[in-house]
Amino acid sequence: MQKKETFYITTPIYYPSDNLHIGHAYTTVAADCMARFKRMQGYDVFYLTGTDEHGQKIEKIALEKGKKPLEYVDEIVRNIRNLWDTLLITNNDFIRTTEKRHEEVVQKIFQKVYDQGDIFISQYEGWYCTPCETFFTKRQLVDGKCPDCDREVELLQEESYFFNMGKYANRLLEHIESHPEFIQPESRRNEVVNFIKMGLEDLCVSRTTFQWGTPVPFNPKHVVYVWFDALINYLSAIGYDSDEEKFERYWPANIHLIGKDILRFHAIIWPIMLMAMGLPLPRQVFGHGWIMLEGGKMSKSKGNVVDPVILVDKYGVDAVRYYLIKELSFGQDGLYSEEMLVNRINSDLANDVGNLISRTVAMIIRYFDGKIPAADVTEPVDQELQDLAQQVFQEATAKLENLDFSGYLIAVMKLVSRANKYIDETEPWLLAKDESKKNRLATVMYNLLESIRIIITMLAPAMPTLPERANQQIQVFADSDQIKWQDAGSWGLVNSGAEVKKGEILFPRIDLKTLEEDNIMDDNKADVVENEAAKATEEKQPEYISIDDFARVDLRVAEVIACEKMEKADKLLVLRVRLGDEERTVVSGIAKNYKPEELVGKKVILVANLKPTKLRGTLSQGMILAASDPDDNDVEVLTLERIPSGNRVK
Ligand code: MSP
Fold first, then answer.
1. pTM tops 0.85, yes or no
2. Cα of 88 to ligand 1 centre, how many Å?
3. Are 443 and 378 contacting, i.e. CB atoms less than 8 angstroms apart?
4. Which of 560, 550, 553, 583 is nearest to 637 (CA)?
5. DSSP string, 223-244
6. Per-residue pLDDT tens for 608-638?
7. Nearest atom, ligand 1, residue 51 CA
8. 237: Cβ below 6 Å to ligand 1?
9. 442-466 b/e (C-beta count within 10 Å ≥ 16 → b)
10. Atom 19 of ligand 1, residue of closest alpha carbon
């Protein structure tokens, strides 16, 4: 049997100082999406996550709670494991830095690097804050005082072990230069390069001021610095020094997926540690952006952390995963609010995906007694749908390969929109009225099911329960647990003759108003008491819409590539516009103010998610924006110069 290609992906190992929030869930869900994608492609995947349990902070919190450190973290680690179960995370292992299999490897490596002279003992000098039990450098002090508690600090010396990182700096720079894919996204790479070029100091890799850590093997007064300890999890979990076959199979890792906050540890300290060990470097370190709240960062002290378990309970695991994966665009920070989550579920999942499936199911039941018909009569519009499916497959694959998670889902949703539009264009309800068009109707139904099969296949890494739930209604997969990614790149795999059944609504619409009235939204909006006085002032207020209401209008830059007058309609122009790589037809009532040739080449603003409608027999797919005087005599189309077509206006 041919050996499968391997794919080793990791998340950071999280501090079990407290329960995890939606920000941590983001990294783990995104990595899971990647792991599932690679498994669907046929790779032998190893997906690792775990917990980083040593260090002074954990020791201190446990002490405050009157517990032993291990006793304290055990409970949180249980919650973390449950959280990953709830989010259907398919990690192959869960490593804890307090496990023997890990501590042994840390000691081995520390010893090895010490023996070869890259770790040496010296005096650590720093400003020490006794209440915080922490050393600071002079630069970190604020007005000469502790940056955490604002108390006096004293200059202390402590015997410590140091790691000579400078020795490997040039080799690392060369590696970064000759492997542009090593640090991603690209913008983050420059930040790392500049940091290395400023000169790397020796890194202090042991502590004597607390006990909770892996002891230095030849001097147990010292414990190994938490980061030196933690990074080694990526090796200890796959059998470094204990299971040679497994280690050889998976190392070097393909991707360390991490948040941008810990990039320097992974892109500088970690590769240098590996160089000192004589091991190859991971192929890629990817630092994604952060999920922010409107008021800034999530933090326990602000009391604004968002618990993913509650969200899954309310909205279902597929919807929460979909939201997380879609919302954070490539390497950038993203904003979270529950209202945005609900709007996203309603627009993408309930309206677009859910409706496509339920309309198709209803029509096949109505027109073909639920039996999936065979395709027969093919028209150009069918080819267009097929071509787009192929194009979306290529695009979604490429985006996922590049860890552009939101780009991947945006690509898939293009096919969802196209398939919904296909229903409007082919008008099956009219075909059904004409017995001679029965074959054509069958083809339309078949093509819709094919599109749905392809869409669900591509959504599976993000929404793992969708294939099984959808298959109960549409039977497009022989085995919904064994779907291959590549099948999304083929057309015609649905078997005719199988049966379609009406089933549960896959993504029920969520009523934001009810949520607010029931007082179960995450922010405190629903806490407002509606008394008479408040109501009275409300009545006088203009009717505001929220920023999220506005965000539902998909405004796009569109380039006019052709334009003509509509026959027998003196007010209407028919424009052909381009949005990125998509083209559309739009009918606009501006013929009195513009000659067709005046508009060609202009970039206008299109309301892209307006329901398509037929105007004098021509399907208008959106509306262009224009300003006018009160009598509509003078009309001016809004145009742009610089931003390329396809981009959003917001
Ligand atoms: N224990 C270290 C990592 C050691 S890896 C060898 C650590 N742990 S952590 O619990 O603080 O988790 C850090 C990671 O959680 C971040 O790098 C990021 O991946 C994720 N996130 C935490 N908050 C986040 C957001 N608000 N948004 C997105 N991800 C964030 O650092």
1. no
2. 19
3. yes
4. 560
5. EE-HHHHHHTHHHHTTTTTT-H
6. 988 888 788 788 889 999 998 877 778 899 9
7. 1
8. no
9. bbbbbbbbbbbbbbbbbbbbbbbeb
10. 259
